[in-house]
Design a protein that fits this description.
This protein has 301 residues and is mainly alpha-helical. The protein has helices at residues 11-61, 75-87, 103-109, 115-128, 130-146, 150-162, 167-187, 193-199, 206-216, 221-243, 248-257, 259-271, 282-291. It is built from 13 helices and no strands. Helix 9 (206-216) packs antiparallel against helix 10 (221-243). The model is unreliable at 1-6 and 39-65 (pLDDT under 50).
Length: 301
């Protein structure tokens, strides 16, 4: 028996259905475009708001810190820091690299052989030896120069020169002091410096020279003291690094371990009078005396 024939839809109905599908497609496309445009407009508005909000913040953070800001640095403080970093840098040509303060003999004698023994030796020199004494001379020279007391400055300079325990130690401190003064006059001269220098009758040893020049430039005493003792310890470590030998990392470890020693020595030297001067590092003084008779030497002291 033949299958029943599928009834044919009228042509008008098929056309109407296609038109309805086209309209739905168009409406869907329009709705998607509206949603997209709305999203873009919204994102643009948000971005604009962020920019408008951020601009004042950026302008605020890019401004220089106010004068009273504890985190800022005044022009005079920046200049003082710049000069101290220059004058007490290893590259400042006072010839500090030529001297070891007796460390060369101590290494040959076996007193210093590694980072630990070097740290102990230098801590004693800072606390009870030439480090403390030089700090006291620097402080009193700075105060005398600041107050324009020529008589006191001359007396301090004479006492400091006489305080060297050996001929090589005197050569070390007087040669560096003379070089420091000459370079300060040539490159860093200022009003009153020549008068202060002329007030010292005789040799100007290194700590007195540093105190005098920093006072002439109106650099405060406390940062000058800390910078000087740091430079002193750094030069001693540099000499030991070439003698032991000592690696760069161990050298920095020794310097880090001496931080509190330098800080405490600086505080004692700032509070000390000339009557507090004295040294108890007899082995270090003997090392300076015996150095001149060593058979082979890299350093002048």
């Amino acid at each position: 028996m033949p299958a029943a024939a599928t009834p044919m839809r009228p042509r008008a109905v098929r056309t109407s259905t296609r038109r309805m599908m086209v309209r739905r497609t168009i409406m869907a496309t329009i709705i998607m475009m509206i949603i997209t445009m709305t999203t873009v407009i919204t994102m643009t508005s948000i971005a604009t708001m962020i920019i408008i909000t951020a601009i004042p913040m950026l302008m605020t953070t890019s401004k220089a810190p106010p004068i009273g800001d504890p985190g800022g640095m005044r022009e005079g403080e920046a200049a003082a820091l710049y000069r101290l970093m220059t004058w007490l840098s290893p590259s400042f040509p006072v010839g500090a690299f030529s001297y070891s303060s007796g460390i060369e003999w101590a290494v040959e004698a076996g007193d210093i052989g590694d980072a630990a023994s070097l740290r102990d030796w230098l801590a004693a020199m800072l606390t009870d030896g030439s480090g403390f004494c030089d700090g006291v001379f620097l402080a009193h020279a700075h105060r005398a120069a600041t107050s324009c007391d020529d008589a006191a400055l001359a007396g301090i300079a004479e006492l400091a020169a006489a305080f060297a325990p050996s001929r090589e130690r005197r050569l070390e401190t007087s040669a560096q002091g003379r070089a420091f003064i000459e370079i300060a006059r040539a490159a860093w001269n200022c009003d009153g410096l020549d008068q202060m220098i002329s007030g010292c009758d005789g040799a100007i040893v290194y700590p007195v020279a540093v105190g005098l020049v920093s006072a002439a430039h109106a650099i405060p005493l406390t940062p000058t003291m800390h910078a000087f003792l740091h430079a002193l310890a750094s030069n001693w470590i540099s000499a030991a690094a070439r003698l032991i030998p000592l690696g760069q990392t161990d050298s920095q470890r020794v310097l880090a371990l001496l931080e509190q020693v330098v800080v405490s020595t600086a505080k004692r030297a700032l509070d000390a009078s000339l009557d507090d001067l004295g040294s108890a590092t007899f082995r270090a003084d003997l090392a300076c005396m015996r150095h001149e008779t060593q058979y082979t030497r890299l350093f002048r002291s």
